[in-house]
Amino acid sequence: MKNYFLLLFFSLTVFSQKKIEAFKSVSLNDTREISITLPASYESNTTKEYPLLVLLDGQYLHDPFYGAINYASYWDDLPEIIIVTINQNNSKQRQEDCAFDEADGLPTKKATAFFNFISYELLPYIEGKYRTAPFKIIAGLDTTAGFINAFLYKDNPIFNAYISLSPELATEMEYYVADKLKAVKKPIFYYQALASGDIKQMKGPIQKLNENIKKIENPQLNYKYDEFNASHYSLALYAIPNALYQIFDVYKPISSAEFNDKIVILQEGHTDYLINKYDIINNKLGLKIPVRINDFKAIEAAILKNNAYWELDKLAEIADKNYPKSMLSSYELGLMFEKKGDQKRAARYYQLASQMEPIGDLTKDMMIDKYYDITHQKEEPDGKSKN
Fold this sequence. Notes:
Blueprint: H1 2-16, E1 18-25, E2 30-37, E3 50-56, H2 58-74, E4 82-86, H3 91-97, H4 109-129, E5 132-141, H5 143-148, E6 161-165, H6 173-183, E7 188-195, H7 200-214, E8 221-228, H8 235-247, H9 256-263, H10 270-285, H11 293-305, H12 311-322, H13 328-339, H14 343-354, H15 364-375, E9 378-379, E10 385-386
Parallel strand pairs: 3-4, 3-5, 5-6, 6-7, 7-8
Antiparallel strand pairs: 1-2, 2-4, 9-10
Helix pairs in contact: 2-8, 6-7, 11-12, 12-13, 13-14, 14-15
């Protein structure tokens, strides 16, 4: 048992790939401790790009975010993510980093320097050194959650998603933030959560901001709000998974519910549904990922259920684009011709598939069996083939 725990500890240490650095900032005229946690596949998959998550209050927000991401990415519900934390152990420094002027609700001089540190020093450094996708998230709790809203004040916000946990909102921010979200011209994800254990002075502005955001009719805005029966600090354990699943909802593989409620009910256009799903993943999340094999099988099943066999031709094109060396494309064409009654061409494509690389549950033996079954069909007395 002792050896097991040592092995487990070693494995977690190896695969978490967390690096701690001292970052010297010109904007702050100070050195800040940051940490970079790389996904487990980062070293082995040398062409893959990863979304970037910037965490304020990184000294205690890192672990709950890392745990949620690591668990969900194991099931492919979330993508693997590069996590960059800014550790703010000094409470006075934290307050100065995120302070707003009480008169106009804008960041103070020191907070502006902190804003510039993130925008013009930290992000370019990370993006230049690591393989980051264009999609960037920022998150914080109470004081730092209020501060992340400053990034929305730019005409072209540099972050695509905002996770605001029990934010301490500056003067009039419940109106400023709503106005900025109303005007965004690119996809923005905005999540905020409130705890029953939060103090009354915080709850009022947060709830008012929620009311104002809910009135916004902007197709570029994806907004979610939660209230939890939790303490101020335990809120994070409830909210973090909800926030991540909101942001990456479209990323998830096709589920049974999605198949039954949205796909199999279509009489046609099943392949278009698949194309659109991955176009959204690319356009909204900046992620270029191959179509999952299980998603191919779901679309294939819907096509067969609706006897829309001609769509298998288009599905074969998608397969060839995503997995050109595999048998998937030839298999889909063989299946199409088999269902349409063209046994000769079906046999030819199954034979071709048997000479290519297996994929998923498709094997060489399976393709050979299909070819054999078609080419050795018995003849009926009337000259028609019998399966």
